[in-house]
Amino acid sequence: MSEKYIVTWDMLQIHARKLASRLMPSEQWKGIIAVSRGGLVPGALLARELGIRHVDTVCISSYDHDTSGELKVLKTRRRRWRRLHRY
């Protein structure tokens, strides 16, 4: 079994802010796509830090109970982001 790495809320916020600063200027981004099952909260933190209001999700599965298998895309992103504008 692999070792667990515990991430505190403070560390998650610190790293989200560091990543957001590397993604500046935020005007170059139309939105954020977050991967479900672990990426939704970091995606929301990034969106807040960058002032981005459009967040979508991609859902991917690679496990069936305890067995690792092929990646299956369960949900893709919305397609019409090019028409969205900043508020």
Please, could you describe this protein's structure?
Helices cover 29% and strands 26% of the residues. It is of the alpha+beta class. The protein has a domain at 29-78. It has a three-stranded mixed sheet with strand order 1-2-3. The termini are far apart.
Strands of the widest sheet, in order across it, are: 1-2-3
Low-confidence stretches: none
Specify the structural class: alpha+beta
User: What would the average pLDDT be, to the nearest integer?
Assistant: 83
Order of secondary-structure elements: HEHEE
Question: What labels describe this entry?
Answer:
magnesium, EC 2.4.2.22, xanthine phosphoribosyltransferase activity, alpha+beta, hypoxanthine phosphoribosyltransferase activity
